Amino acid sequence: MAGLLCASSLEKRGVKSTVFDTGIHGLGGRMGTRVIDPQPLIFDHAAQFFTVSDPRFSELVSDWLEKGLVRQWQGTIGELEVGGQFVPFPSSPPRYFGVNGMRSLADSILSQTCMVNVVRPCWISKLEPFNGMWHLSENGKPCGQFDIIVIAHNGKCANRLLASSGLPLVARQMKTLGLSSIWALLAAFEDPLPIPTGATSFEGAFVKGVESLSWMGNNSAKLLGSKSNSPHCWTFFSTAAYGKRNKVPQENIPTATAEKVKTAMLEGVEAALGLPKDSLQRPFYSRVQLWGAALPTNTPGIPCIFDPHGRAGICGDWLLGSNLESAALSGMALANHIADYLQSGGARPEEFALGLNNGFETLGGHDIGQFSGWDSSTEANPIQAYQLST
């Protein structure tokens, strides 16, 4: 979201850009949606929904609503205590999601641009400054020359990329960022999951008291409607603590680890719903995925970072919080900052240095992100909106 909105916002200021995206299945990063044919089964396997608090983001979401790209999630969401006690959250603030999954929103953002070039899948492996330009390459293959670079990525890959880029201040800020790891389990069931007697039927729940589970969301009900006759597709997320204890290389998950995590998370579903052990129906489809760089654990609390001498910027949700709204605001802020810098002709670069020496503070919120207005006692930074996701 941060990189996509940075690119589209640069276009509004007359600046052309190229987006290099690593996604094999599509754009969007943690706005991932997986469709399994021929059923089809559909899962938002990262960001589940978002909320809105900032007027600038609200204006953007209003446009998305008008164009039919997003809609409000009317289903009940709340907190599920181990044993099956469910407490619904209020309907305010409203919750939104991409109409065909969160990835469809990412695709739609760039489909409306004409000055943004997208290269995907592409893993930029080297940034090299030469003759006043940035030369980018992927495993030795040239990928173009650019006036300014933007890093809308985090984790080990970004750190490796910046290590030899000649941007010590930018690299230091990126390395200060802490990230959680969270397991996702996608599971499709023939029959509805048994909701505890007396509990409100819910479509999403933040789980409390279960080590292997922090969230469960009914994608079929959200995306297709509760009266759909399709299989019941659920996304389950582990706690950050469970993810940390069971972390492995996410590009090469051992089969034994995948089975162990799947079993533990399904047992967590049973515990959360108050079901007897081994009584939960077996999913006819399941897949586990590790988000090794899931969510930020700390933040400098600034919209973006920019090094005018290095002609490099950073945007991302982690600069403001851990949600989709923070990502959007960060991308838009960096785009406007870069456009202002270019408009100035670069004559006074020191005036455009931003965020290169800011300290970091710990982030609060749910294990899958921040949602202002809910559980505010645990949210250190009430910016709202994303999850895994962001």
From TrEMBL:
Highest taxon above the source species: Eukaryota
One Pfam short name: NAD_binding_8
SUPFAM superfamilies, per the entry: FAD/NAD(P)-binding domain (SSF51905)
InterPro entries: FAD/NAD-bd_sf (IPR036188)
Protein's name in the database: Amine oxidase domain-containing protein
Lineage of producing organism: Eukaryota, Viridiplantae, Streptophyta, Embryophyta, Tracheophyta
